[in-house]
Amino acid sequence: MDVILISGISGSGKSVTLNVLEDAGYFCVDNLPPSLLPELIATLEHEAQMKTAIAMDSRSAHLLTTVPATVEKLRQAGHTVRILFLTASTESLVARFSETRRSHPLSHRMGIDAHASIHLTLTECIEEEREILASIQASAHVIDTTDLSANQLRKWVKEFIRIEHVPLTLMFESFAFKRGVPLDADLVFDVRMIPNPHYDLALRPLTGRDEPVIEFLDNQPMAQEMYQDILAFLRKWIPAFKADNRSYLTVAIGCTGGQHRSVYMVEKLTQQFLTTEQVLIRHRRLH
C-alpha cells in the first residue's frame, strides 16, 4: 500500500494538502492517533484500498514518539510509507491565525509557572509545537509554505505524490534572501556575489530560465567557478547522506531576488543529477 503521512505546524497548509491527496484518489484520514495507525492500515489493506493519506499533528503529542518505529514496521511489512511535513515562519503563522480568528490546537493546554497555571500565547504554542514535531520532521520531506499561495502548495504536493520511494530524493530550490532562508533547506548556498543580470535593463524582466540570462551567466567566470564548486561538493557528500539513511535532501540556492542567479544555478545543477538521482526542483519566487 502507498501510505503518505502528513504532519506539520498548525496553519501551515495540512488541510490543503489533504484535499489534494483526496482528489488524487487517496483515502484520507485527519488527526489519527498514532496508536491506531497499524490497525487502520490493516483494515484498509483488507478492503483492497491501495492508497491512503493520514494526517497526524500535535494534538496527539504524547503518542508521536511511537511514529518512527511504527513507520519502520509498516515498511518491513511491504508498505511504501512517505512522510510529508509542512512548516512556515512563526510570523506567517501568527498572521494566518489572526486572519482566520481560529485558536491554536495547543492553546487549550495549560503552561505551568511557579505560582499558577497560565494559558500559552500563540507564539509559545507555535514554538512548543515545533519541539513536539521535531522527530517527525527529521525524517520527512519538508515544504516551507511561508510565502506560498494555495495553488503553489497544491502543485508541490502533486509533485511529491509522483516521486517514487527511493533511498534519497534530491531537491533543488531557488529562493530570495530578501525574503529569508527557507525553513526546509538542508544545505544553503549564497550566489549573491555573482554579477547580477538585474542591472541589465534588457535582462531585468527575464528569469534564470531564459536564454539571454543563461548566456549572460555562462559568460561570467565567477558563476562558472561557483557552479563547479557546488557540483563537486554535492557529488562528494551525497553518498554520505545516503549512508546516513536520509530520505530527502533539500539544496537551497539564494540570490537577492530569487529570479536570475539562483534560478540559473538550480536549473544547471539539476541537469547534472537527473540521470543519477531522483530530483525535484522548486523556484520559490517564480510562482
Automatic annotation (TrEMBL):
GTP binds at residues 57-60. ATP binds at residues 8-15. One of its GO terms (molecular function) is GTP binding. SUPFAM superfamilies: P-loop containing nucleoside triphosphate hydrolases. Residues 169-286 form the RapZ C-terminal domain. HAMAP family: RapZ_like. NCBIfam families: PRK05416.1. This is RNase adapter RapZ. It comes from Undibacterium rugosum.
